[in-house]
Design brief:
The chain is an all-alpha fold. 78% of the residues lie in helices and 2% in strands.
């Protein structure tokens, strides 16, 4: 069987420098906004309104639950929307307004409503940026573009964290809410600076626009869910993504508790150092992952990032010494850096020519969010029953099973491409 995929010359768009620069600015400004303000919100509600821990937990969880619930509908909307820039600008504005309202109002219903709106905005903005990137550069250049997006996103996270810390120190704890609101509005301005005519909407949803179709299995009439549920590769990938985040989300909080048990005064500083160090490592890792995904293939690079997770969990069982925790946590920069790039790229490969890219990616991100949501709860049960080392062993086991499923169930998705002349 011929493994070449033929792409029409007029279906490999060349974006202008202005659009690409605007996309860079968008990724720099919106990354920290999409991540939410959970830790800051908890401290704000406790200090200013004296909320109880259970109510704070409910408020923080509301955003995550809304984001998970909205992922698949958001993906379907993005697949159908022709003006994806407006979706991003609208979502960024919603998140900015939510940030301001969270700072001004502390009544329980208002905070919950604002968090839900924020979560829906995040569910729309993130996938829409990926879709716009695909529509601007095309499938062939997508791995390098998404790697650049991720690197700029991590750089923006570091800068925003530093600005938030400085603002809180010199002004007040409310500074971070207004900072996030400003970053959201800057994101809206950046995305509208992208030239809308340069975004190929067919490519942005993974539709087949080639002059020559070589795969009779591709059918635009196939229903999205039928397509997703009938593709064993997508199901194996979704399960491995679920297990990755089931193992990953609780790892740093568990390490923080492990440290706090023996070094309560050092723990907050060490956790902050771990977060910043991991983000800094993700920047070069993301860029390298995009290049290696083109030369090595998707699967070996993804498995390399996945393998860092069970290794990290096992190393945490050795000692709670700060001299070990910080370098071990740096492995998160490798795993998460590769993961952030390759998930979008692999889904693009698996859905190429179907027109179901964003909906399928929404389903994968839903699996990711569900795993992350369950991670801390299940890890807490294991730790309570058997101690911290048992918790890390359990996380390592989840990661190892996910790695095995990915190895067996996901084939190499990179295919050779050949440019052919298309119709004008």
């Amino acid at each position: 069987m011929n493994t070449e995929t033929f792409i029409a010359k007029n279906d490999a768009p060349t974006a202008s420098k202005r659009s690409l620069a605007a996309l860079d600015c968008l990724n720099m400004t919106i990354g920290d906004v999409i991540g939410g303000i959970g830790p800051y919100l908890g401290a704000h509600l406790k200090a200013t309104a004296h909320w109880q821990p259970a109510d704070i937990g409910t408020a923080i969880s509301a955003m995550g639950l809304a984001t998970i619930a909205a992922q698949i509908p958001a993906g379907a909307l993005i697949d159908r929307a022709r003006e994806k820039r407006l979706l991003i600008a609208f979502s960024a504005t919603l998140m900015s307004l939510s940030c301001v309202s969270l700072c001004l109002f502390t009544k329980f219903p208002i905070v919950i409503a604002a968090q839900i709106v924020f979560g829906i905005g995040a569910a729309l903005a993130g996938p829409a940026i990926v879709a716009v990137s695909l529509g601007l550069v095309g499938a062939r250049l997508f791995p390098a573009r998404i790697a650049r997006n991720e690197a700029l996103n991590h750089l923006g996270n570091v800068l925003a964290a530093l600005l938030a810390a400085a603002g809180a120190y010199f002004f007040s704890s409310s500074f971070v809410f207004y900072l996030m609101a400003v970053l959201g509005l800057l994101s809206a301005f950046a995305v509208m600076s992208i030239k809308g005519g340069e975004i190929n909407n067919a490519l942005a949803r993974g539709a087949d626009t080639s002059a020559v179709e070589t795969s009779p299995a591709v059918s635009h009439a196939r229903e999205t869910w039928s397509f997703i549920l009938s593709d064993k590769r997508i199901l194996a990938f979704a399960l491995s993504v679920f297990l990755f985040h089931l193992a990953n989300a609780a790892m740093l909080p568990l390490a923080g508790q492990y440290l706090a048990a023996s070094r309560p005064h050092q723990a907050p500083l060490l956790i902050s150092a771990c977060i910043v160090a991991a983000q800094l490592i993700m920047i070069p890792v993301s860029l390298v992952a995009g290049r290696l995904a083109q030369s090595w293939g998707r699967k070996p690079v993804f498995l390399l990032g996945f393998a860092a997770l069970p290794l990290r969990a096992l190393l945490f069982t050795i000692s709670d010494s700060p001299n070990l925790v910080l370098p071990v946590q740096m492995l998160d920069g490798i795993g998460a850096g590769i993961f952030g790039v390759l998930v979008s790229v692999i889904v693009a490969d698996l859905t190429q020519g179907t027109g179901h890219y964003n909906t399928t990616r929404g389903a994968i991100i839903t699996a990711q969010g569900t795993g992350a949501m369950l991670s801390n709860f299940l890890a807490g049960l294991v730790v309570q029953a058997g101690g911290y080392r048992s918790g890390f062993f359990a996380l390592a086991a989840c990661a190892a099973v996910g790695l095995l499923i990915c190895y067996i169930g996901l084939p190499e998705t990179l295919v050779k491409t050949k440019i052919v002349a298309g119709e004008n």
